[in-house]
Amino acid sequence: MPRSVNSVASRARRKKILKLTRGQFGRRKNVWTVAKNSYEKGQQYAYRDRRNKKRSFRSLWIIRINAAVRPFGMSYSVFVGKLHKHNIEINRKVLADLALNNPDAFKAIVEKVNQD
Prior knowledge:
Blueprint: H1 7-20, H2 32-69, H3 76-85, H4 92-101, H5 103-113
Helix pairs in contact: 1-2, 2-4, 4-5
């Protein structure tokens, strides 16, 4: 009995990967084995960096808040400590956005925290 091979499905599978690697440099875009490895590695980086993005943005928000509270004679850690003490529950993303786009509202929060 002759060997049965589903070449239509194999070719479709390869074309799918080669289509996904279109635009990459060198052999990564047109050699099956290289393209497959490149695609798989790219997916690993994408998975990892979806988590790292959260880290990076939190760090950015902390830097922005720190820069915004310095003119009021406070550091970031003192400011956040006072926020918790006064039970003001605004997350870092919103605080950073206020500091950047609405300095009057941010100043009001800082003054509210400094009332001691």
